[in-house]
Write a structure and sequence with these properties.
Number of domains: 1
Order of helices and strands: EEEEHEHEEEEEEHEHEE
Structural class: alpha/beta
Number of helices: 4
CATH class: Alpha Beta
Radius of gyration: 16 Å
Helix content: 10-25%
CATH architecture: 4-Layer Sandwich
Largest sheet: 7 strands, mixed
Number of strands: 14
CATH topology: Metallo-beta-lactamase, Chain A
Strand order of the largest sheet: 6-5-4-3-2-1-14
Length: 210
């Protein structure tokens, strides 16, 4: 499989000539629609993860692809785009991929703000992304898409989450809210915690074979 990271929370996984896209939101300006997309995962309804225009462009180019998300997300699509509601604990086959969903709620930003639905996704028992949460998948993780900056997290929570999940490789995500200088902060601090248990942390600037 090949993993390609785009800005903010978006990445794609390629396998056997097919592609799954995750969270193509409005903060992802460098995303280009791939060929042979079989599925799109949207972890939750916040616009930095859920952009109907980007989803429309993907489906226009890949009319057989299906959008997978919590029912609170897919109901916002109406009948305009092909979709399937999924829920925590559900596992589905999408082309050559196996997707499994975890969690159910976005991390708390502030007690005064409503908590929206959020689903973490595991791809082929290899790549795990918790969306906007620190939900544990309760199974081994080889590659972790690790949120490193957001209104809902502290860097200490990032470190604790990493050392609890203990992936072989973690790569930073949810970081368009940081300046280029700001990105050097997690890139300097988090690797020490990955190395403490024998893992690694790597910012992905090129496609990665996994």
């Amino acid at each position: 499989m090949k993993l390609t990271k785009f800005e903010h929370a978006c990445f794609i996984v390629e396998k056997d000539g097919k592609v799954v896209v995750v969270d193509p939101g409005i903060f992802t300006s460098d995303f280009t629609v791939p060929e042979n997309v079989v599925g799109v995962v949207v972890t939750h309804e916040h616009t930095d993860h859920f952009d109907p225009a980007a989803l429309g462009a993907i489906i226009a180019h890949n009319p057989d692809a299906i959008i997978y998300a919590h029912e609170n997300v897919v109901k916002q699509l109406g009948d305009t785009l092909p979709h399937q509601a999924v829920s925590s604990g559900e596992a589905i086959a999408v082309g050559p991929f196996q997707l499994e969903f975890f969690g159910g709620e976005h991390a708390v930003i502030h007690p005064s703000m409503p908590v929206v639905a959020n689903l973490g996704v595991m791809i082929d028992d290899l790549v795990y992304y918790p969306g906007d949460s620190f939900t544990l998948p309760k199974k081994p993780v080889d590659v972790l898409a690790l949120p490193v900056s957001a209104p809902w997290l502290k860097i200490s929570e990032v470190m604790d989450y990493l050392t609890t999940v203990r992936p072989r490789l973690a790569f930073p995500t949810h970081d368009a809210v940081l300046s280029e200088i700001g990105k050097t902060l997690p890139d300097r601090m988090v690797p020490l915690f990955a190395e403490s248990y024998g893992g690694s942390y790597q910012r992905l600037t090129e496609p990665l074979d996994i």
